[in-house]
Design goal:
This is Carboxypeptidase-like regulatory domain-containing protein. InterPro entries: CarboxyPept-like_regulatory. It holds the Pfam family CarbopepD_reg_2. With about 900 residues, this protein is mainly beta. The chain has six helices and 48 strands. Among the domains are: about 150 residues, no CATH class; about 100 residues, no CATH class. It has a 22-stranded antiparallel beta barrel. Strands 2, 3, 4 and 7 form a four-stranded antiparallel sheet that branches. The two termini are about 25 Å apart. The N terminus is likely disordered.
């Protein structure tokens, strides 16, 4: 606490016109340190220990007196100020403080002083932000400024995002449900279980007077007159709903004068996905406490809780199945009229396909998760020694349900799956650091960890009737897998700096780190790691930094493998409606550690403090990468892949100040990498890890990670497509490599424009090369629902480029859809629902204006202290996209799994988001 001696009167003695002398005191107590200056001059002095001062002045000069606790005052010297020897001026007394002295030690709030000088204490000490003044028994005054009081701060924020689907598939709008019969295009009603839309033009059909459960408007019949009631058409893209996400958060913090604080945070988020009747809710809370125990020690504790619920999680591929059902529905069948018939069966355009609203109404793909965590840190720092102790605990529970309900298309045995995963993790660590000087330190760390995972899964089947579903099953299969892991992680690292190595300001920094870790679940029980780095700073007296490093690290796979989307590898594309997530990846009790060797070279050059250039080259080798491996009806989580990767990353940063109020900056970065599988640690020629049984991403020796393998056209030795006797290309019975999903390079460009309180941020990204698989387009072609089949189904006399089986050039002309032939023989249906995967491979190149964000922020201050501030933002995500593929997007993954990136099979559409946020602090 600061002490303030408030002088209540001033005495002055004048001996001549050139020297003015005085004394400052209170009740006979001298006031040292008062500053006295001749106004508008550089002549200043201060009162000494006894309160005396002397300054050169003359009649008419003004003296400026200033001292902490009073407003700076100006006193004019006139003849009445010039006194005879030993004659003192009369006391100038503040009336407020006379009253203060009468009241003794009571506290006094700051107010404007009275008296001849009208001292205004609030103005005089405003830069100290005084809140309260108290007088001690000894007559001294003590003050408290704002920083010595408890501070209470609040922050409230709200964010709203509205998203709308973009890059949707293009559907045909002309042809009805049906096929060719006896040389004519015939409409086929839902009772025929016709799946195709290869029927007649909808303009040749009309509604009858007889309504039915399938068609409440009237059954569809052939048109009988020109004035008949035309069919109402429906756009499958209108099925989707816009998504709305609303997030509210509240933060309160109280801080003590010593810097200790308690922070409470609460957040609530609610929203929906693009599928109707969906919702998700999330609650986050946290309590954080920080305290300075002593001058050298401080502690921090954080308790947090998260609760999330989703009523449509895609745990059993349900969302993709809904998108599929909507897409293949004929344009004249409105699913919204109802999803259930009076008999309890689906109301669908065919019993072989789903009504999307029926799947939604009977959805079983749900998710609930809860996470509770606690973290404690204690840091001690004195002189050159630092020690940090950390203890943490986390407990989580994830509940999933999924299954296939009664009357789902192609499901003969309804089933229900209940999956509960409980995970607990506790750790205690200690890190000690010794700093020898500005150029060297050494640090050691030891970390004890314990993990416990319990997986319970119950699979129910054998339901006698829909009334029994899902609670009364005849059959139940239980899976109960407990897993534990105990680890001790130890590490020692240090750094030493050599100065003036190559030039005056250059530095050579040598860093090293080494560790030996123990794990109860690794086969050898011990894993090692090390990292060596040499760093040259300010090379040749330039702001040029060169860093060379080499490291080796061994790690284990996580005990939990919540990504269940590898299950689709059990099914072919034509079995899509039967997909189930029923197999688990279990980490071995005595597994092999994954190890990585990596060497990198970094350059950083700063030019004129406005330009910054960085470049990184790296080479790494990874051995024993874990991947799902299928063996008949079982699957294992196996360390069977070795690969290598080389990469270059380059970035340019620029900051410009264009005038006092305008600032511009940008970051341009470039990424290039190439990887290659070197070894498969089993007898398999390839290991598929994502996709379907007949088209998938793979690990293949000599190929890039994740190359796409699928069906193709049969070719001769000269790579000519072989054409069959009917004039159509022959589908090869063997699969082959079709594409590489890895891009050739990626460029990002971020821009920032700031004018006063306005900030505009704009970012672009460009991904060049790579391939993706657009299976959605293939299946829409098969059903006759795509815009492509609308425009090309009447093509005739087309000759495919290729050779016959005898090797002669093909001259056979064909019609893409010959009504005299069965529909299964037309250009697209002849190859099946998945078509020929080779035709579905598309260039993944795209250019995107990924984000635009405009914000305005304002601080309101009082006495140089922030009293209130706010920030408001508006933004757009995925503002503009140009891509080689018209509907698929390489970053839009199938089943919401990163492993399936570059695969599109009725994925949820890409979204363009418009949002706003408001944050208020006070």
């Amino acid at each position: 606490m600061k002490k303030l001696l408030l002088f209540l009167f001033v005495s002055a003695i004048g001996y001549s016109q050139s020297i003015y002398r005085g004394n400052v005191s209170e009740k006979g107590m001298p006031i040292p340190g008062v500053t006295i200056c001749v106004f508008n001059s550089k002549r200043c002095t201060t009162s000494d220990f006894d309160g005396n001062y002397a300054i050169e002045a003359k009649v008419g000069d003004q003296l400026q007196l200033s001292f902490i606790g009073m407003k700076t005052k100006v006193i004019r010297i006139n003849n009445t100020n010039l006194l005879e020897n030993d004659e003192y001026v009369n006391q100038i007394v503040s009336g407020d403080y006379i009253e203060k002295l009468k009241k003794g030690n009571d506290s006094l709030k700051i107010s404007k002083s009275s008296g001849n000088f009208e001292f205004n204490l609030a103005s005089g000490i405003e830069h100290y932000d005084i809140m309260k003044i108290s007088r001690n028994n000894d007559g001294f005054y003590e003050l408290k400024n704002r920083d010595q009081y408890h501070k209470l701060a609040f922050e409230v924020s709200n964010e709203f995002i509205l998203s709308t689907p973009i890059r949707l598939p293009k559907y045909q709008k002309t042809y009805a449900q049906g096929r060719s019969l006896n040389g004519e295009l015939a409409y086929q009603s839902p009772l025929t279980n016709e799946i195709f839309s290869w029927g007649p033009n909808v303009n040749s059909l009309q509604y009858s007077q007889n309504s039915s459960q399938c068609y409440p408007q009237g059954d569809i019949v052939n048109r009988t007159s020109a004035g008949a009631n035309q069919l109402q058409l429906f756009d499958p893209n209108n099925f989707y709903q816009n998504t709305e996400d609303n997030k509210f958060s509240f933060l309160a913090q109280i801080e003590s004068p010593k810097g200790n604080f308690l922070k409470i945070n609460f957040g609530y988020k609610t929203g929906n996905i693009i599928i109707p009747a969906t919702r998700n809710n999330e609650i986050t809370t946290s309590l954080k406490y920080f305290r300075n125990i002593t001058k050298y020690s401080k502690i921090e504790a954080l308790l947090s809780y998260n609760d999330f619920e989703n009523n449509f999680s895609n745990a059993n591929f349900g969302i993709n199945k809904v998108v599929f059902a909507n897409a293949v529905t004929p344009i004249h069948f409105d699913n919204k009229w109802g999803s259930t018939l009076e008999s309890g069966l689906q109301r669908s355009y065919t019993a072989l396909e789903n009504n999307p609203y029926y799947v939604i109404a009977n959805n079983l793909d749900t998710n609930k998760s809860k996470v509770l965590s606690f973290n404690f840190n204690q840091v001690y720092s004195k002189d050159r020694n630092q020690n940090a102790v950390n203890a943490s605990f986390q407990s989580s529970e994830i509940k999933n349900t999924n299954g296939q309900n009664f009357y789902f298309a192609e499901i003969t045995a309804p089933n229900f799956d209940k999956r509960i995963e409980k995970f607990k993790n506790a750790s205690v660590s200690d890190a000690f650091k010794r700093i020898f000087n500005n150029w060297a330190f050494i640090e050691s760390k030891i970390d004890f960890r314990f993990q416990d995972r319990k997986l319970e899964r119950n699979y129910f089947s054998g339901f006698a009737s829909q009334e029994d579903f899902p609670d009364h099953a005849a059959n139940q299969i239980k899976l109960n897998v407990p897993q534990e892991r105990f680890e001790v992680l130890s590490n020692v690292n240090g750094s030493y700096t050599f100065t003036n190595v190559f030039s005056t300001y250059s530095q050579l920094v040598v860093k090293g780190s080494s560790g030996l870790n123990y794990s109860s679940t690794v086969k050898s029980r011990f894993m090692s790691n090390y990292l060596a780095t040499v760093e040259l700073r300010r090379f040749f007296n330039e702001e040029l930094w060169l860093t060379i490093s080499h490291g080796y690290n061994e790690t284990e796979p996580s005990l939990q493998n919540n990504n269940l989307n590898f299950n689709s590898l059990q099914y072919h594309v034509n079995q899509f409606k039967q997909l189930q997530n029923n197999l688990e990846l279990i980490t071995r009790k005595d597994g092999i550690a994954t190890n990585e060797n990596m060497t990198s070279l970094d350059l950083n050059y700063r030019l004129s403090y406005f330009w910054n250039l960085t470049m990184n080259y790296y080479h790494k080798k990874v051995n024993n990468l874990y991947t799902p491996v299928f063996n008949q009806n079982s699957i294992s989580w196996s360390p069977d892949v070795n690969y290598k990767q080389n990469g270059i990353e380059f970035a340019i940063e620029r900051m410009s100040y264009l005038g006092r109020d305008f600032k511009y900056g940008f970051n341009l970065n470039f990424t290039y990498y190439k990887n290659e599988v070197t070894v498969l640690n089993n007898s398999q020629a390839r290991i598929p890890f994502a996709g379907f049984a007949d088209v998938n991403k793979n690990y293949i020796v000599g190929q890039s990670l994740g190359v796409i393998v699928g069906s193709s056209y049969l070719r001769d030795n000269n790579q000519n497509i072989i054409i069959d006797e009917l004039g159509f290309p022959v589908k090869d019975s063997n699969s082959k490599i079709l594409g590489d999903p890895n891009p050739d390079f990626v460029v990002g460009f971020f821009n920032s424009f700031q004018y006063k309180n306005f900030l505009l941020q704009v970012s672009f990204d460009w991904s060049q090369g790579g391939q993706l698989w657009n299976g959605t387009q293939q299946t829409l072609n098969y059903y006759g629902k795509s815009e492509l089949t609308e425009s090309q189904r009447n093509v005739t006399n087309y000759v495919f480029n290729g050779v016959t089986e005898s090797g002669a050039a093909n001259t056979k002309a064909v019609s893409f859809y010959d009504t005299n032939l069965p529909v299964e023989q037309n250009r697209w249906t002849r190859y099946g629902v998945d078509g020929v995967a080779e035709d579905a491979i598309e260039d993944a190149t795209y250019f995107r204006l990924s984000n635009i964000n405009l914000s305005y922020s304002k601080d309101f201050r009082e006495d140089n202290v922030n009293k209130f501030s706010f920030k408001i933002s508006v933004f757009v995500n995925n503002a503009f996209i140009m891509a080689k593929s018209k509907s698929a997007f390489s970053s839009n993954s199938m089943f919401n799994s990163i492993d399936t990136t570059g695969f599109d099979y009725f994925n949820t559409p890409m979204m363009r988001s418009f949002g706003s946020s408001l944050t208020i602090k006070f």
